[in-house]
Design brief:
Elements: E1 2-3, E2 6-8, E3 21-23, E4 26-28, E5 41-43, E6 46-48, E7 61-68, E8 81-90, E9 108-110, E10 128-130
Parallel strand pairs: 1-3, 2-4, 3-5, 4-6, 5-7, 6-7, 7-8, 8-9, 9-10
Length: 186
């Protein structure tokens, strides 16, 4: 087990991160583009200013992991171990990432670009999308009960195909619930 260690400026696209369990570690300005982080465990870890495009995370444990100012493009979070899955994102680019069929209750997305992200059949109960871009984000058979969308923008979701009881919207973004009707709101 690797505990309480700082990793700064490493390029894991060329050199693999050692398999094992990382606890209370901080990764800063690291490159994980096309890296294979499969079967690695991260608990109470922080990733800051890191790049994860097309990174493989099969059976990876992400338990209480915090991402800040990271690029996580095309990441299949649904491949990771979902038993202890607990993650949060601040000022991250998550375009084209997949959260299919995951339970992500009370997850925080703050100031994130979630363009083209797939939340199909996910459970996001009690989550917050604070000041997030949801352009072309896919919500299909998604549990969105008590989700806070008040400051999110570019929302488009079908209330008939998602559970949105007690979800919070602002008057500025509520029109995204009516897109399927192709009506104009002025």
């Amino acid at each position: 087990m690797i505990e309480n260690k700082d990793f700064e400026g490493f390029n894991y696209s060329n050199t693999s991160l050692n398999k094992g369990e990382y606890e209370d570690c901080r990764f800063t300005n690291c490159n994980f583009v096309n890296a294979d982080l499969s079967n690695i465990s991260f608990t109470d870890c922080q990733f800051t200013d890191c790049h994860f495009s097309l990174t493989k995370i099969k059976h990876t444990v992400l338990n209480n992991v915090y991402f800040s100012n990271c690029k996580l493009l095309g990441i299949h979070f649904n491949d990771c171990d979902d038993l202890f899955l607990s993650i949060s994102f601040n000022n991250c680019k998550l375009e084209l990432s997949v959260f299919y069929n995951l339970t992500l209750k009370k997850i925080l997305f703050k100031d994130c670009d979630l363009s083209g992200v797939d939340f199909t059949e996910a459970n996001l109960t009690g989550s917050t999308f604070q000041n997030c871009n949801l352009k072309n984000t896919l919500f299909q058979n998604t549990i969105l009960e008590s989700v806070d969308f008040k400051s999110a923008y570019n929302i488009s979701l079908d209330p008939e195909n998602n559970k949105i009881r007690r979800a919070k919207f602002s008057k500025d973004n509520i029109a995204g619930l009516l897109n399927k009707y192709q009506i104009k709101i002025t």
